[in-house]
Here is the input.
Amino acid sequence: MKAAFQLCEAVRLTYPLFRIPLHYGLAKNLGNCSAESILLFKNDKASSLLFNSNKAFIYKTGLGKNMPRILKRLTSQNKTMGYFVVFEVNRTLNENHLEMTDFLCNFLVFEIKNNLAEYTTDKIYESLIFDLLLNKNLSDLSISDRIISSNWLIRPVLRLIYIEVDALRTLNYYFDYICSQLQHINPYAKAIRFEEHILVILNYNDGNEYDIIFEKIIKLLKEYQLYLGISNPFSNLTDIYNHYNQAKTALTLGRLLQDKTRFFYYKDYGYYHLFSCMDTCNLPGLCSPHYMLLHQYDIMNSTEYCDTLYQYIAAANNLSAAAKTLQIHRNTMAYRLEKIIQISEINLSGGEELYQFYTTVKIIRWLDKIEH
Here is the structure.
């Protein structure tokens, strides 16, 4: 009904004799007038005239005795869409004012119909997302029909963002405002409130477009000091449930590991998600013996060889790239790798050994966090 209230405000400013009723604020904020006023009007004969006529009339009895007013039922195809009230304040109401009311109400009905169509479309895509998040078994035909009905033009790439909101301290309009801002950033996105948090289904063409969108999202969320988890990209809407779990898990693990950022990609927490599903007692048995030798050496000699090898593996065994990450000279990096081989006896050409070492770094970090 937002458009309806906006039009009422425009009428109030344009025609000084027109006044929005005292119950306007209640109707806007609570969705209805007081029970007392409704009961008084229902017992007045004017109520039957209002409920059964499409013409505006001047109401001077009952509630209108001390302040006459114009009443009109707003209808479309004989269906009631609302009621319009004009108070007599600066001059006496007459037949000319009735004609003006009928004229204005025609525009008001048009605006309400547009607003209801938009509202219905929004509810269709929201209900579809809710059903998919609740892991309901929907047929491809049902999903396709509901996408078409919601006018949702889905781009090739989807990505789900889970935004943590403190629902107990957050007003409802705040949720609506954040959702509208997010959808403004990416017009093809869909933002909804789910389980007292905000979910955004980003919808874009490629990685370059995503980078532009995400930069704007981060700027907005930093302003409101919000945290978010981000799923891996996907292309089929039916995969929303799995990627919702990814985004939610990324946020949970990111906060647990105390990473110094406000956004957490699931791709960075896949290992930790796996560890969280395992018996902690079994994790030390998966650790690399090469890591243990190198870690012991680091402790005794105040070196950083474990981190050096980890960055080397993370850089796909690219010596120059690893040196750049560690902010050391390439020759220094080469020297460290030689020392690492001597100390740990690891084979830098052995994929399995390097993979186990990389995994061990993740395991040690996980164990350190959950044990403290």
User: Anything to note?
Assistant: Residues 294 and 343 are 6 Å apart (CA to CA). The radius of gyration is 32 Å. Residues 153-275 form a domain with the Alpha-Beta Plaits fold (CATH 3.30.70.270).
